[in-house]
Structure formats: C-alpha cells, structure tokens
Amino acid sequence: MTRLVPIAPSHQIAPLLDVYGEAAAAKRRRLLLGLALVVVAFVIAGLAAEVRPGTLWHKIGNFTGYFDRLLKLEDGARVWTDPREWFWGLTRWGRLLGETLLIAYVATLSGVVVAVAAAAPASRNMMPLALVRIVVRRVLEFCRTVPDIVFALIFVAAFGLGALPGVLALAIHTAGALGKLFAEIVENIEMGPVEGLASTGSGWLAQVRFGVIPQVLSNFTSYALLRFEINVRGATVIGFVGAGGIGEDLIVAIRKFFYSDVSAILLMIVATVMLIDMVSSRVRHRLLAMESRG
Known about the structure:
- This protein is mainly alpha-helical.
- It contains eleven helices and no strands.
- The longest helix is centred in the first third of the chain and has 39 residues.
C-alpha cells in the first residue's frame, strides 16, 4: 500500500532551514573555537615546559642509533646470529622475571582487597556519613597520587633491598587507583536490591555483601586483571631502585652499556606482558559477556 507523505510549501520550509543552518553554523563555530583553544593551550604548555621540537629533529639519530646498538653483540654481530650468546643469562633472568611476576601478583591481590573494602565507604549511595566518605576518599587519593617508585624508595630505605619494598609500594598505589574505580562502580549500581535488604532489617554489611557485591563482582575482577598487567610493568621499573625483580639487572645493564643484555631482558619483559595481556583480555571479555547475559 502506497502512503503519501505531505510536504509543506517551500515558503514554510525556508524559515525552518534558515534556523537549522544558523544552529549548525553556531555549533561548527563552537567546535572550531574549542579546537583553537586546545591548540593554543598545547603550544603554550610546550613553550612553558621548554619542549623543543628542533632538539627532537636534530637528535633523533641518537635515539635510532641506540636501538641499533641494542641489536648487536660484543663482537659486532647481530644478536639473532648467536641466540646462545644473546641469552647467556636466561636462567638468572628467568628467575628474576618470575620474581617480578610474583611481586606484581601479591601486590595486586593485596591492593584489590583494600580497594574492595574501601569501595562502599567511599561511595555516595552506600555511605550516608559524609565524614567517613571524605576521609576514605582522601586516603585513596594520597595512595594513588604518590608515585609507586617514590613509595619504593621509602620502603627500600626502611626495609632494605628485596621484594618486600616492591610489594608494599605497588600494593599501596593499586589500592588507591582501584579504590577510586571501585567506588565509582558502586555508585552506579541498581539500588533496588540494597533497598530491599534494608527494608527487611539487614545491616549495612549485609546490604554490601548481598546487594552490592553480586552487581559489581565482574567489573571488579576485570579492573583487577587490568591492574595486574600494569603492576607487572611497574614491578620492573621499581626494580631500578632495588625493590626486587628483573629491573635490578636491567638498570645495571643500561648503566654499564651491556647493549645485548638490555635487548634480551627487554624482549623477555615484552613477551611476558604480551602473554599476560592476551590471557587477561580473554578473561575480561568472558566476564563482561557473562554479566551482559545475566
């Protein structure tokens, strides 16, 4: 069946088109103005920080030359021509890389426990006492604002060299970062189950346990896995200051210009992080799929 759509006369459409054109032009002007302000702020920030593009252009050869040296053995041959010489320290590096993974795992798990405990008290919909909420949020801000390598330096001075300072540094930073994310997730939950539990006389802890946790568990797990990937890289960096792991050997190789050792260690770290990323991404996607089906 054919349907006829009435079309208004042109003299009625013209004013509407003019209004639409003016609104679209105003929107484009606002967009261009915003982009111009971003560019101006970008240039001003670069000048204030003394970022000189000319230096990058003139010294880019030093950067590429360094990576070229990383791919050469002591005798000048390319590293892939003698893998045994390239990975001469594979046993030791593998053990230190395993220590790095353990540091990241223990730190992530410890930080997640603290972040889960702080999520509800830091959320507006679950914590009616403003003082408690403010204190918890400020503590979390402090934990994530101080860089983990600064925490590592403090703990190395306090507890000495080893894995313990690395675990403490990463755990504190993880608790601060995940605590904020978890609190925001809790603030976006459906409050119906929580209100239902409250109407039956359930206490605050019971409301969190049975009304909040089931709704946020998959998201919490997803963010925890992502944080584990970050902490593997972080555990490598804090090893530079003696907080355990493969970072100690990496910084020694960099300082002593053992170029082939640097490239071998970096290759092991990159391969490990890529493997962790693939596995954790698959797990995260499955969790999100399960949540969407539920």
